[in-house]
Amino acid sequence: MDRGRTPTNPGRFAGRAPGPMLEYLPEPNAQALAELIVAFANAAGGTIVVGADETGRVHPNVAEDLEPILERALRLCEPPFREIELPQWFPEDTPRGPVVAIVVRPTPYQMSVGGSQVYVRSGRMNLRLSPDQMLLGRVAPTETAFEDETVPGATLDDLDTDIIEEYRLNRIKRGPRGESFTRLELLRDAGAIDAANNPTGAGILLFGRNPQHFFPQVGVVIVRFKGTSLREAALTSERYSRRIEVVGPAPRLVEGAWQALFDEIHQRSVTNGLARQEHYEYPLEAVREAVVNAICHRDYRVSGQRIEIRLFDDRLEIISPGRLPGHITLDNLLEEHYSRNPRLVRGLYYWGYIEELGQGIDIIYEAMHREHHPPPEFREGERSFTVTLMNLIDQIELQYGDDLNPRQVLALRHLHEFERITNREYHNLCPEVSTETLRLDLRDLISKGILLQVGSKRGTYYVLKGDG
Fold first, then answer.
1. CA distances (Å), origin 8, targets 65, 93, 98, 372
2. Strand, helix or coil at 82?
3. What is the total count of domains within the chain?
4. Residues 411 and 321 in one domain
């Protein structure tokens, strides 16, 4: 058991809800504590606040009596933690009394309680796995995961000091406060170096000056194809109009891929009254989350293949090397969460590129729904996993031309999802626009042969012509 330094930020947990990397244990017992430790260790790590609840209420005398309970809890955890993953604990004084923060690091090997009960953190819950849901991708304690393998030929000079300092500043903002790390301690906490200060896979991925020197498969390739399929693109004189390669450590991959995609999916500016509005081919939030997910969760053992992002006229595809990790399947993708690269996930979380651990797929779904796009599509191949986002704006414009105003495009997107639209629903979509202007919009769509009016007066609604 590794006791840390004493933080000096009282009450910092009050009001913070439990989540993928935070839980409260007001009155601990060894079994409950062991389950939490195992669940965090099997995910991306996390912090357990012992002796308080999420409202900040402190249970007296709990912190003082914690050490023997924690020792019993750790004896329940199997296999025993290696020294580098051993949980640390930090006593804290709050205005309402003392508490203890236990910081759990992710392990590359599967942890259990008593050798049989396997838990993994999913949202704010500890999910107990059945025997057929064992964590694929976790290795035996005597083996080493990709993230923890030392990189042959790599030294501390292969880590970028500027990137490390950038991470340190972000770590202070998002990590458990009161922690104080030397540079080597910071790297060791991130799993970037081993006990002999040799860079690991995680270290090169997060902080490497040139990760591609050691791992040629690290990178993102973005290609804008002409048409709606590879076959259609092959028939043109030039198969693609633009090809971009992004290289560097993981945070630079996120930044570079996002900037390149932002430039590509920026569609046009339109003027609605006095307001200038930007329109994009895809919801920005959905694209950002899909990119971060691919970088975090790809299988870095798959060589000869980088993350590929394909832009067609009607869709965006993000192809990530490796199949779905652990117990995750296409059927439980929304309900359950797991990462094969917990150190990389934890690093990008502290960097600020992941807002809520385990919520990436949910955010993509919500963003697509909010902007009236079809839901994302997921496909698992033999050696890859693909996320597809449909470009509904282009579909509408390819079908109806460019003479529709933004309000009419919005109405057609609503119709593609809900099959009909009423005057009230159209007004709800465009609340700042007068009723008369919206009426003229609908009349114009009818005159163009796009919409058909059904019913009259209060019972009036509109459908796409041919659907009614």
1. 21, 7, 11, 47
2. coil
3. 4
4. no
pLDDT higher than threshold 70 for residue 424: yes
Strands 22-25, 112-113: parallel, antiparallel or unpaired by DSSP? unpaired
CB half-sphere exposure, 373, CA atoms < 13 A: 28
CA–CA separation, 183 vs 189, rounded Å?
A: 10
CB 442 within 8 A of CB 426: yes
Task: Output the six-digit token pair for 44.
Answer: 């991306």
pTM beyond 0.70: no
**CATH (domain of 278):** 3.30.565.60
- What does the pLDDT read at residue 334? 79
CA distance 414 to 430: 12
Residues 110 and 177 in one domain: no
Residue given tokens 């090169």 in the structure block: 204
Tell me how far apart the alpha carbons of residues 354 and 254 are, in angstroms, rounded to a whole number. Answer: 11
| 346, 107 contact by CB (below 8 A) | no
Give dist(CA 84, CA 188) in Å, integer. Answer: 8
CA neighbor of 385 nearest in space, from 448, 307, 467: 307
CB 266 within 8 Å of CB 278: yes
Helices (H) and strands (E) counted in the chain, each on its own, are 15, 19
Provide the CA 166 distance to its chain's centre, in angstroms. 20
Residue showing tokens 């292969």: 158
Q: Quick one: which of 15, 12, 99, 11 has its CA closest to 55?
A: 15
Q: How many CB atoms lie within 10 A of CB 418?
A: 10
Residues 6 or more apart whose CB falls under 8 angstroms from that of 58 comprise: 51, 52, 94, 96, 97, 98, 99
* Among 290, 322, 308, residue whose Cα is nearest residue 225: 308
Kindly state the greatest CA–CA separation across the chain. Answer: 79
Alpha-carbon span 190 to 351, nearest angstrom: 12
Q: How far, in Å, CA of 62 to CA of 368, rounded?
A: 46
Is 141 contained in some domain? no
Could you tell me if 163 and 249 are in contact, meaning their C-beta atoms sit under 8 angstroms apart?
Answer: yes
C-alpha pair distances (Å), 332 with each of 45, 158, 329, 379, 381: 22, 39, 5, 13, 17
The residue whose two tokens read 């192809």 is 319
Confidence of residue 45 (pLDDT cuts 50, 70, 90): confident
- Shared domain for 33 and 97, answered yes or no, is yes
CA distance 133 to 292: 25
CATH number at residue 90: 3.30.950.30
Give the Cα separation of 397 and 392 in Å (integer): 9
Pairwise CA distance, residues 76 & 118, whole Å: 12
Q: Which carries the bigger pLDDT value, residue 226 or residue 306?
A: 306
